[in-house]
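Progress report, Aim 2. The chain analyzed during this reporting quarter is listed below.
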Amino acid sequence: MEEVKKISIIVPVYNSAIALYDLQQQIDSAISGLNVSYKLILVDDGSDDNSWEVIKDLKSKFPEKVTAIKMAKNFGQHNALFCGMRHAKGDYIITMDDDLQHPPEEIKKLIECAENTHADLVYGISGNYQRPIGRKLLRWGFKFTSKLTFSVTAEGSSFRLLKKELVNKLIKHNQEFVFIDELVNWYTANIKYTNVRHDPSKLSASRYPFSRLSKLYYNLVFGYNAFLLRLITFLGISSSAISFLVGLYFLFKKIFFHVQVGFTGIVVSITFTGGVILLSIGIIGEYMRRMYNIMNAKPQSSISEIYE
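Predicted structure tokens for the chain:
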């Protein structure tokens, strides 16, 4: 494997103080065996525990190896990653979680895959990752949405390696909501996968409950494709056609069979059409709200403290 002069490892931190010392130690041990210089970028994404104090302590102990960034509030995992990317240097940028589910010694596999395949992006995929049923459903939703947007079915992982050239393109995006695994498909198809080990989380409870993951999926649906707008067009055409056929049916009965037309058909038609209209207005309103946020330059993130 050719030597990589420098890499940056970005870790978004959220209520994981008890794991950070082990994380830094294991990363340092893993990288020292690769003869590669590195910078560990720890981004505190509005933690409620003492994560920031631990990050500052690590910075004081390893000033040349650690960059400490504190967000002004919780902006979300991908926004925190983007913040870290803007301070990253080196040939490769590696992202990983803060709970040691991704063993740092597996970083070697990402680098080897990138060197051997010249990929722009390498995902570390694990076959032994056991997810609760709720997360499995959301994961299926992510893949379904990705297929609607890009006509591909892609695997993804928060344990990934990106070339610096790709990162330089990604960080030009300044919109409020960003999702790395969707944006990379705008710039490259040169994506590879490598099998890595997946360990149990060092934290007792998940910091990303089903409600937060559901919100992420909601933002993904509205933020990165126009599928719902196309659905509105389909519903509009369908409801118009159905209403026209219903009208012809009652007109035919009235003219040829002299049947007294009651209010049932009218009520059904109005209710159906009204429901479609209200749904359409709601969807259009959500897209307009997001355009409003973009026009008003709602910030993607905000840093309150940084120690480079």
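The CA atoms of residues 232 and 281 lie 9 Å apart. The longest strand covers residues 6-13. These observations will guide the mutagenesis work planned for the next reporting period.
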